[in-house]
Amino acid sequence: MTKFFQLVIAGIEIGSIYALVALAIVIIYASTGLKNLAQGEMAMFSAFIAYQFHAWGLGIWLALILAILTTFVLGMGVQQVVLKPVQDSSLLTVVIVTLGLFLGLNSVAGFIWGYMMLAFPAIFPEGAVEIGSVGISYAAIGVFAVLLACAGALFALFQFTKIGLAMRAVAYNKETSMLVGVQVNRVIMVGFGLAASLGAVGGIFAAPKLFLDPFMMLTVLIYALASAAFGGLDSPLGAVIAGLFIGVIENLAGGYIGFIGSDLKIVVPLVIILGTLLFRPQGLLGRKYIPRV
Amino acid sequence: MSLLEVNNLVAGYGMVQVLNGISLSVEEGEVAVVLGANGAGKTTTLRALTGMIKTSGSVLFEGEEMVGKKTDQIVRHRIAHVPQGRGTVAQMDVDENLELGAYIRSDKAGIAADKQKMFELFPRLAERRKQAAGSLSGGEQQMLAIARALMMSPRLLLLDEPSLGLAPLIIRSVFDTLQQINTEFGTTMLVVEQNANLALGIAKSAFVLETGDIVAGGSAAQIAADDTIRKAYLGI
To answer: With a threshold of 0.90, does the pTM exceed it?
Structure first.
């Protein structure tokens, strides 16, 4: 049983990262219908920014808060400069543009910080809480707590604030939003900043575990996209549950099924997701879109 | 000076011009209607007024030029627009739609009081406060759309075919309510309608739109009594 719990805990730790990036993808998809393939690379870039602030002598917590705020501004900038012009273009155009953003950010990060793996300082203290024979590392507890805090803050923002009401209205119905006086473009811009910041949280908290290099978020992005699709592309709660689920399943499969090991474990959750989406294309908690006739 | 003065308004979609320079005016406190058949340009007129399509000419609201402004800026002059097909957020509940209607206001007490007023005006909505707008009946959705627009406490209320897709009895009650809103709150309204008889019944002035041009205008009573206009344009 010890092994089982240990694997579940490790799964929740990495799953929290998937969930954070998936949340970012879902927020943007819900408000603009755009699947931002560059979400992972934006998160990687934020982790480098945090690294840089830390290297300049700031404390790690200050460095990461500053990096998240910087990312908020950068996210809004990316939306205004890169994505707004193609907002109403065909799906293919938008996909190509986000792919371009992906490659661009990757190269710029490589150009500035190089392609060597950098060690990111630990954010949480070393050590673990022992419950019986199961050790839960402070890092795992910390990352999970950060996920819960972000999801809770997001929920409060959407449900209890005016800007949250406007963001939901824009996501559902842009015309009505305009007619009640919402500045639709500004709301979308803020949404991008918010999503980029959530991604940044994911990237930064993943960095001590995954090490820092321009490719660190590649697998995370694939899992995050899978989480978003699995949970329902327009459901933040679905993204969180799916992210954690994928993290746990991946670890359990790797730990228990002999031939899978750590090489094939990436495939297991994807197979489950494919199976689910065949029968529930809108994802676990997504809304089924029924067009009016 | 009229509350709304439209002069030589030209508007269309892409290369297609729909309005060929229409002029009309709406006086403070009155109900004005624009009548016309399908494709006459009724919806386009309202969309042009709130800056939702490319427009030229002049739209003076309280003496201020609206042409060239963005929709959210125009709306902030408290011009409420109930578009065709309701104009509520289907996925949000009744309460949230009303909150959203008051988006440009910040007087919390006033908003709460107006919400209460809406529930008195539309008791059906009070019963369905926590229900998603999309799950309401057609008539209830239209009432919610009107209530949402009133939450702005508008200086001018634009209504795009409030009778569309509703059963005759419901249409009757929607128009009764509009009249009640006009008398009780003094809300100025510009209604575009195909249902000429009903619309003329609540209106003070009327305009007849025919393929992008205003072909007749005057008091509602005059238009209703003019046999030529009735036969040629209104089919009644």
So the answer is: no
